[in-house]
């Protein structure tokens, strides 16, 4: 059995692998992680060959958490399919993060998302319903300090030019995302294995005059994807705010939803 970690993207045929697991005891409570392993040889798990242990005691203690992930990693990850399936969520994120109704941010900024895989999330953090786990998300400018356009793999100058063209036709513009998928940020932060995927969404509807934007989009985004916010509860909250679909809607409605969700789940935890 090869000692490799593999991630396959069926859309582009990308295969990233790491042949040498981190040389550290996988049991987080192992006291030797801080003092060193002098006189001990770290041995890989015989089944998955993806983690190491300094002793049989550590391996046994870690088994409760490791057993669900103890398998040869040759995982097919449909990155693009997941993004398309969650188009409804990403459209909302783009609208809020880039403040398309009140600013021109969509013309020169993009949403930068750092994520990892659900099978890399420690069991203590609970179940993750989707293949990915959001670590953080932020809005990043496409301009450098000297005003020149920054070249970002997967996001081209053409995207921002077409965003301006959509705006000229009366729409909001083209929203650009950059997803950065990290292999093992919790247990092995030094692992630099990274897959970057861009995603674009054309927002062709006109901006909504007088509409304010929520400041809680990051919490809602990570809360839904990471399984901390129930979609059932979210649907109920949205259902309670049907005014969102009326022309004379209350501009604070979306912020009310965020506030209501804070009552369901401690988003900031």
Entry keywords:
alpha/beta, 9 strands, zinc-finger, disordered N terminus, 8 helices, 2 domains, disordered C terminus, 28% helix, 269 residues, 3-stranded mixed β-sheet, single chain, 4-stranded mixed β-sheet
Biggest beta sheet summary: 4 strands, mixed
Q: How many domains in all?
A: 2
Structural category: alpha/beta
The portion of residues forming beta strands comes to 15-25%
Instruction: Tell me the span between the first and last alpha carbons.
Output: 40 Å
N-to-C SSE series? EEHEEHEHHEEHEEHHH
How many strand units? Answer: 9
**How do the strands of the widest beta sheet line up side by side?**
7-6-8-9
Shape: elongated
Q: How would you describe the oligomerization state of the chains in this entry?
A: single chain
Helical content, roughly? 25-40%
Number of helices: 8
Model description:
It is a single chain. This protein has 269 residues and is of the alpha/beta class. The chain folds into two domains: 5-75, no CATH class; 78-229, no CATH class. The protein has helices at 32-35, 56-66, 79-85, 87-97, 157-168, 217-225, 231-239, 253-264; strands spanning 5-9, 14-18, 43-44, 52-53, 73-76, 109-117, 132-141, 173-182, 194-203. β1 and β2 (14-18) form a beta hairpin. The longest helix is centred in the middle third of the chain and has 12 residues, at 157-168. It is elongated, with a radius of gyration of 22 Å. The model is unreliable at 1-5, 241-254 and 258-269 (pLDDT under 50).
Short structural summary:
This protein is α/β, with parallel strands linked by helices and 269 residues long. Helix content is 28%, strand content 21%.
């Amino acid at each position: 059995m090869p000692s490799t970690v593999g991630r396959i993207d069926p859309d582009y045929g990308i295969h990233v692998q790491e042949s040498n697991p981190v040389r550290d005891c996988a049991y987080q409570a192992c006291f030797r992680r801080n003092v060193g392993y002098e006189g001990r040889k770290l041995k890989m798990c015989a089944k998955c060959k993806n983690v190491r242990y300094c002793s049989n005691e550590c391996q046994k203690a870690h088994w409760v958490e490791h057993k669900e992930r103890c398998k040869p990693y040759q995982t097919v990850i449909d990155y693009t399919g997941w993004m398309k399936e969650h188009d409804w969520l990403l459209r909302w994120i783009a609208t809020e993060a880039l403040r398309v109704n009140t600013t021109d941010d969509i013309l020169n900024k993009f949403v930068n998302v750092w994520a990892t895989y659900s099978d890399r999330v420690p069991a203590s953090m609970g179940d993750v319903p989707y293949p990915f786990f959001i670590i953080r998300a932020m809005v990043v400018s496409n301009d450098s300090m000297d005003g020149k356009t920054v070249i970002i793999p997967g996001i081209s100058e053409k995207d921002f030019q077409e965003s301006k063209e959509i705006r000229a036709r009366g729409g909001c513009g083209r929203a650009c995302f950059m997803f950065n998928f990290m292999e093992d940020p919790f247990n092995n932060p030094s692992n630099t294995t990274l897959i970057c995927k861009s995603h674009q969404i054309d927002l062709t509807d006109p901006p909504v005059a007088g509409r304010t934007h929520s400041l809680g989009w990051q919490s809602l985004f990570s809360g839904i994807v990471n399984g901390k916010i129930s979609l059932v509860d979210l649907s109920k909250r949205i259902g309670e705010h049907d005014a969102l679909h009326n022309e004379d809607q209350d501009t604070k409605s979306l912020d009310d939803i965020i506030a209501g969700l804070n009552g369901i789940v401690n988003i900031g935890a």
